[in-house]
Amino acid sequence: MSAGFLSDVEAMYDRAAVNVDMPDGLSDKIKACNATYVTRFGVRLRGRMFTFRGWRATHSTHSGPAKGGIRYAPNVDQDEVEALAALMSYKCALLNLPFGGSKGALEITPSDWEPFELEKITRRFAQELMRHGFLASATNVPAPDVGTNQQMMMWIADEYRRYKPDDINGMGCVTGKPVEGGGIAGRTEATGRGVQYAIHAFFQSERDRHAAGFESDKLEGQRVIIQGLGNVGCHAAQFLSVDDGCKIIAVIEHDGVVRNADGLDIAALKAHQIATGSIMGFEGGTSDMNGAAALEDACDILIPAALESVIHADNAARIQARLVVEAANGPVTYAADEILRQRGITIIPDMLANAGGVVVSYFEWVKNLTHMPFGLMERRQTDREHRILAHSMEKMTGQSFPSEHKGEFLAERGEIDLVRSGLAEMMHQAFAEVSAHAHQSRDGAVTLRDAAYEIAIKRISGAYQAIGL
């Protein structure tokens, strides 16, 4: 499957690259992965030596350090890692972040190991990455991905700090750390929050909304199916249901699907999953073991938020959603993408929809390099100005400031507020650029995916040409 994933990413790149003016040979250079490190290291556990295989691929460093997550999974391989690294290059270019693209993976089933064993394995992996130049704030910066979390990122950061205690920017070698360990508020929710903001931007765009068959700009009541109740899917589902009034009518996991036409209680469903290890048997909905079939249920918005290639040539013709939002990387194959575009189904592509994680990782990286909390210099001044403005308005009008807005207007802005504001700005701006490019190019024949790729490729090409390549 991963070889197909890499070929799908390259095919989508090729489809867009022909529409970008570049010097001969540069397109091939941009598409190719710069370097991939393969390591096989041993860790003594349970009275014997275990050998683990891992990868770290650097697709590009055209704009600064390579950025991308590390996933722990039993079925990863080099093709998958290189495909994900390429997507990171294009994602960072689209969002105008000063990063190239990278990705890492370890062939492991995390649940097979105790936490203290995972710590030893993770620290050994970090040592191998450091020794070969694939871990540092200035060159290669990992983050959490499938099967990894903020605790593992903290182990990596601590191992780097032990290895290079004189690197004052050492904590910036990895993002997605706990707040107490140099992380940033809002990183855990970032990808799911970014999915929400991408959908907000879509619904605020009248031309995109109408093209997909949505008359109203209101999200309330929209029927949503989520595939994957991990970190990304759970946060996206919670935000869309609680903040926006969407009905999450189905949640799909590897062991089945839970449906409720009136909308699922996501917090209760997640609690059930944590308590039982499965979504099946949740009392707030009906369970069915055939989760894959639920991708084809009638809905307004389908959000694949797990792994790649879940929408493919065999099921794309039966997808009934009007809007597919790629919260996962590569959930729609190239063949399925062609079928969905012919059927007029709109896709918000992965390199835009799930960019929230790398955007907030960028904020964390900047925080680590500047050694200063977000908002430290201006927060008190801004709060003071808000109080003066509210008082002045009351004095000039002779009326009290509306109580329903006064609390929010005068509330102190914490780091989480600044992070969400910055993320919303970057997601809306990126969507606006992609939408504008799609609608002004070639008589409307350009999809949001093609437009995103073309913008990203043009920026990477410009960066290479600026240094004489």
TrEMBL record:
Report the domain of life of the source organism. Answer: Bacteria
Give one GO term, molecular function aspect.
glutamate dehydrogenase (NAD+) activity
Q: Which UniProt keywords apply?
A: Oxidoreductase
Residues that span the membrane, as ranges? none
Looking up Gene3D superfamilies in the UniProt record yields: Leucine Dehydrogenase, chain A, domain 1 (3.40.50.10860), NAD(P)-binding Rossmann-like Domain (3.40.50.720)
* GO BP of this protein: L-glutamate catabolic process
A Pfam family assignment: ELFV_dehydrog
- Family to which the UniProt record says this protein belongs: Belongs to the Glu/Leu/Phe/Val dehydrogenases family.
Task: Kindly provide the name given to this protein in its UniProt entry.
Answer: Glutamate dehydrogenase
Organism of origin is: Octadecabacter temperatus
